[in-house]
Amino acid sequence: MKRGLTGLTLVAALCLALGIAMPACAQQGGGLNVTIDSDISFGTAAHDARGGGTIELDPVTGVRRTTGGLVVVGSTYFTGRARISGRPFARVRIGLPDKITMRARQGNKAVAAVFTASVAPVITLDALGQFSFPFAGSFRADEADNGEFKGNFAITADYE
Description:
The chain is mainly β. Helices cover 0% and strands 56% of the residues. It has strands at 4-12, 25-29, 32-38, 40-41, 45-47, 53-57, 64-68, 70-72, 80-85, 91-95, 99-104, 110-117, 122-124, 130-141, 147-153, 156-159.
């Protein structure tokens, strides 16, 4: 018997959104803007006879992999993209969460998701004062996990 996991989505804490995509949400502070140009979605998966497993999205290649008893159902998934804006050529320290909590829509089940990004802790903004980078993560679902899981995260930026 297959049970489905749907809408495994990370929703940025910077905005209120019910949909999967979040165009240009921004947090401003100290002359720096952190904008989530694209949210992340792990897509839809179902449990096979082996039970739980992991869905992983690579932040660089965008490749989705599953392990264990999770089987991908459908092809819609995507990595996220964030943009830091500030003074041209400024050095900026970026703070990213290691883990976040994902909750089912009913709120009675929480699971951990690992957050990953291909970005150094300190970056230099370009001549236009911009720096853009992808982010993704992995999501572990046990055999009993079922439903649409969402979670919030925060990306911080400070001038160095």
